[in-house]
UniProtKB/TrEMBL annotation:
Residues 27-368 form the Leucine-binding protein domain. Belongs to the leucine-binding protein family. It holds the Pfam family Peripla_BP_6. This is Branched-chain amino acid ABC transporter substrate-binding protein. Keywords: Amino-acid transport, Signal, Transport. Residues 1-22 form the signal peptide. It comes from Pelomonas nitida.
Length: 379
């Protein structure tokens, strides 16, 4: 009798457990960024933003289609390398993720986006700015920051009008991002009457720029623009000082990080660097961003580098679309994603027909005493 009772109790427990399990919906969120290599500090910053969002969503007990959602973060490292990026994308597709936030770089985001598109999996990049990323008609591709056309063009016009630069020199690192933002800077500067006196190229792994900087020094530019990331911009600034080049140094969001002063060996003069972040908050939204930074520092014991708030928002935007669609099935919530109107820590997020953020803002910064200081928010 006791054996029968134990069997019955066990069966009842199994049924109850099964019922509870059936009411829980596992939702896999993929994240990809370079957590190894020269810009690992930026990739780790992104991943922490994703982790923070997922942990908070689990603590809230989000319901999707009548079931309690349990969110899992599947994080991959692409090393800022296109081949590694496509391998990471394929791995996430094989893992049947419900959505992806990433990649960090345009050079990895563009080839990976085709893989996600073919699988029907929505992808939101928090930081890829190349125009090409959203210009190919892929319905699964979105971003929560302004693109290079806005970013590079704004910096070019700013160089000519506000900084009164007559002669500009341009260097790019031959990546999709670096070439794209440099090209748009050139257009913007020329549109306001500035002349390009020299164009040079390097790579995203280079550390010696003496030859190209010596060539540019002879042309006496008022501004040197660099299309690339902070890991290369830092040593470049150090070598500019060694050569006595006193030109202003400009760049996009790739150089506009808290790590830049240290990477330059603290050789930057106050106000020498002007850069732009592909995003911007002002007014009421500024408090949300400040609160996020405080919360992030308390959680991870490190400051936000640059993109973590955009990653955090991107994760929440995916989940917001799932909640509205009452489903985590990519095919079912994708139509809702394109209708997004989400108030995040980085501001209001809505997408146009290409997947670009509507009315994308840019924030211009400079550095003083080793600290980044905001100049203005422009749209």
């Amino acid at each position: 009798m006791q054996v029968k009772l134990n069997v019955l109790v066990g069966a009842a427990a199994a049924l109850l457990s099964g019922a509870a399990m059936s009411q829980e919906l596992v939702v896999k969120i993929g994240h990809v960024g370079p957590t190894s290599g020269a810009i690992a500090h930026l990739g780790k910053d992104n991943e922490m933003g994703a982790r923070m969002a997922v942990e908070e969503l689990n603590a809230k007990g989000v319901m999707i289609g009548g079931k309690k959602a349990k969110f899992e973060l599947l994080a991959e490292d692409d090393g800022a390398d296109p081949k590694q990026g496509t391998a990471a994308a394929s791995k996430l597709v094989d893992s049947k993720v419900n959505g992806v936030v990433g990649h960090l770089n345009s050079g990895t985001s563009i080839p990976a986006s085709k893989i996600y598109s073919d699988a029907g999996i929505p992808q939101i990049s928090p930081s890829a700015t190349a125009v090409e990323f959203t210009s190919r008609g892929l319905k699964t591709t979105f971003r929560v920051v302004a693109n290079d056309g806005q970013l590079g063009g704004t910096l070019g016009r700013y160089a000519a009008t506000t900084l009164k630069a007559k002669k500009v020199a341009i260097i790019d690192d031959r990546t999709a991002y670096g070439q794209g933002v440099a090209k748009e800077f050139e257009k913007g500067a020329k549109s306001q009457g500035a002349v390009v006196v020299g164009t040079e190229h390097t790579t995203d792994k280079s550390v010696d720029f003496m030859t190209i900087l010596t060539t540019l020094k002879a042309k006496k530019p008022d501004v040197v623009f660099f299309g690339g990331m902070d890991a290369v911009a830092g040593p470049m600034l150090r070598q500019m000082k060694q050569l006595g080049i006193e030109a202003k140094f400009m760049g996009g969001d790739g150089i506009c990080t808290g790590a830049l002063p240290k990477l330059s060996g603290d050789t930057m003069a106050d106000g020498q660097v002007v850069c732009a972040e592909a995003g911007g908050v002002e007014g009421e939204a500024k408090k949300s961003m400040d609160d996020f930074r405080t919360k992030f520092k308390a959680k991870f014991n490190t400051d936000v580098q640059i993109y973590a708030p955009y990653v955090y928002d991107a994760v929440n935007v995916l989940v917001d679309a799932m909640v509205r669609a009452k489903s985590a099935d990519p095919a079912k919530y994708l139509p809702e994603l394109s209708k997004t109107n989400y108030k995040g820590v980085t501001g209001l997020i809505a997408f146009d027909g290409k997947g670009d953020i509507k009315n994308g803002a840019l924030t211009l910064y400079t550095y003083k005493a080793g600290n980044r200081e905001q100049i203005a928010v422009v749209r």
